Amino acid sequence: MPSYQEARAIVIEKCRALGRAPATEILGLNDALGRVLAQEIRADRDYPPFDRAARDGFAVRSADCRSAGVSLRIIGEVAAGAGFAGRVGAGECAQIMTGAPVPENADAVVMIEQTHAGAAKDEVVIERAATAGMNFVPRGSESRKGDVLLKAAARIGAAEASVAAQVGCTHLMVYRKPRVAILSTGNEVVEIGAEPGPHEIRNSNSFSLGVQAVFAGAEAVPLGNAPDSSEEIRASVLRGLQEDALVISGGVSAGKYDLVEPVLRELGAEFVFDSVEIRPGRPAVFAVCRKKPVFGLPGNPVSTMVTFDLLVTPALDILGGAEPRPLPLLKAKLKGAVEQRAALTHFLPARIEWSGGEAIVSALQWQGSGDVVTVARGNCFLVVPQNKLKLNAGELVDVLPRSGIV
Ligand code: AMP
Ligand code: MG
């Protein structure tokens, strides 16, 4: 049985081996948030395009300001967006604003806070010695024309959008979002608008999985629920195999009505693993069926949720043309001791808080893998590693934040 780290590595390797290059599309920059670049973005000119003042103040020749207290004659003003035609000669300076081009023969900017008015109206006293290069960013020092600023496979966040905008990319070629079919199974499951019978439950998994798919950058294709019948599951699985990936909740444990594995086997699936050393989520199945990755996640809502984050997200990254993102584990100080018995890595609902510059995490009392209400009360999962099932108060421990919440 693989550890969750091994299981992730196996998923990544298998999905890479499928070798399917996602289709591309062209989007306006505003619509590209979270999308994966299918092209490089290069600098259209040097950045900064000119020697750019980093402070409001005075552009000076450092040779004139070797010592503090020099008085210089102000010969003009350079505002952002404007050029400066004149020359700064010996004993002269120009008033300059942040973002304006430093005049050619000046070589330093002195902050306005380090100057005061001189005796004459056009005079300023420089209160400190200036050194060449002070307070401006030289042309081309951030990047040179033609440099690759964003590589293909980069995901568009705020900084990437800013870079694309800076070089004038109004439109980007990105990969299409991977489409992930989401199927729940179970005779006890009814759709959420329906009134459940006394022993029935509403299909919450399809909705948590839908949210997780979106956070993973994919498009969720909801297939509803299939009752525990081989025929019905087969029909829904065949429908799901038309998408880029299929995620099934429920029906993968050892019960008499857990029919997902037999149906997949009958359809010729290759089972890559059928359990992972974790709790919740141990019976999680990963198979490849008709060249599509298929995940069978145990149906208890917290099991479904944890196994999606651990196993499905990296697959969707690859199917979407991105590098699989690392699991974003944080370190936090544990508030109260925690002990587990089963030799499995546990993911326990928990709450992380930052106080006095320190991350502190507390495990929440819960009723096990059906108790999604407690998960919603927290904001993360505390990771109790399989080889260290007792965690003491005050220890630094691993925390898996919930996507979009922390
Ligand atoms: P299973 O993995 O099929 O044995 O399901 C385990 C438990 O998860 C069931 O007894 C249900 O309580 C719950 N469950 C299964 N499917 C869903 C679903 N779609 N939404 C919410 N809970 C579910
Ligand atoms: Mg079931």
Structure description:
It is a single chain. The chain has 406 residues and is of the alpha/beta class. It is 19% helix and 31% strand. It has seven helices and 28 strands. The protein has helices at residues 4-18, 158-166, 205-215, 230-240, 260-266, 301-319, 372-377, and strands at 24-28, 41-42, 52-53, 57-60, 70-78, 92-96, 108-111, 115-117, 123-126, 136-137, 148-150, 171-175, 179-185, 189-190, 201-202, 219-226, 245-249, 270-273, 278-279, 285-289, 292-297, 330-334, 338-339, 345-355, 358-363, 380-384, 390-391, 396-401. The strands form eight sheets. It has a six-stranded mixed beta sheet, with no helix packed on it. A hairpin with a 5-residue loop joins strand 8 (115-117) and strand 9. Helix 1 packs parallel to helix 6 and helix 3 runs parallel beside helix 6. The longest helix has 19 residues, at 301-319. The mean pLDDT is 97. The structure holds adenosine monophosphate and magnesium ion. The site of magnesium ion has 5 residues, from loops.
